[in-house]
Write a structure and sequence with these properties.
single chain, 3-stranded antiparallel beta sheet, mainly alpha, 4% strand, elongated, Multidrug-efflux Transporter Regulator, Chain: A, Domain 2, 184 residues
Length: 184
Amino acid sequence: MTASASRLRLPLASCDDPADQPPLHVGDLAREVGRSVRAIHLYEELGLLKSARSKGRFRLFDADAVMRVRWIAKLQDLGLSLGEIQTIIRSVDEAASAPSAMKLLRDTYRDKLAATAAQIARLRALESELSMSLSYLETCDTCDPARLMHACSSCDLHDCRPPPELVAGVHAGPRPAAPQPENR
């Protein structure tokens, strides 16, 4: 780690001094954050998390490791891979100054916020389509079963409303070929 990178490590605001808390064994850390022991080992192997060793060579994590693993989990929830998280950590550690490191995080978070907002908009549109489809299909309980499978797109129970795409798509698929007369 470079000298400038060590200056960038800012303590988290907390009422308790993490140095006053006993170190956590890997199993305790895993339970605390809801991750598997294997995930904690992987984070350490990838350099996302640091540990010390006890005299018995057990991994020991300080109290900050809880926050670090929760941060990693949130970044994964945002869709970042562990490799991308490594790149973020490396870039922050290698930044020339704290403001440039924080700019990198702001830019990353801003991009993720825009992507999340777009995903929410897509999901809301899908929610609306599902709701319309269910409403449309509620009237199909009274249709003749043969009509449901073949001609439901122009049902008089739907007041000439076209079916939502989640309903119409069923009828847009391939149709079995009509039997051809045999030539003799």
